[in-house]
Design brief:
single chain; alpha+beta; 4 helices; globular
């Protein structure tokens, strides 16, 4: 949250009142990843969910775990980025054919 607040003041924690462009999900466990199915209803059709997870061996989630969870939720990953020295981020979006 500290890193996000350094970049913008427009942050809502919890469920937004209306669809938003971007949702960030802090994921440390497989249970956290199951939230993707719910979170996809929070974003605009052209919005994205960024899953932030510990890099390398710092956590129990690997890149394939995160990709698989996104696909299971009906989303596709289209970008991977370094979020910080300790965390990486993967962006998920609706497939073009599935956009509401």
């Amino acid at each position: 949250m500290r890193l996000l607040r350094e970049r913008t003041a427009d942050i809502v924690q919890g469920k937004p009142r209306q669809a938003v462009d971007i949702v960030f999900l802090a994921a440390n466990t497989h249970r956290d990843l199951r939230r993707l199915k719910t979170l996809k209803s929070w974003i605009e059709p052209n919005g994205a969910i960024w899953v932030i997870r510990p890099k390398g061996g710092r956590g129990s989630l690997g890149e394939m775990d995160v990709m698989g969870a996104g696909l299971a939720a009906g989303l596709v990953d289209n970008k991977i980025a370094s979020f910080s020295d300790t965390h990486s981020a993967m962006r998920f979006v609706f497939r073009l054919r599935d956009r509401p």
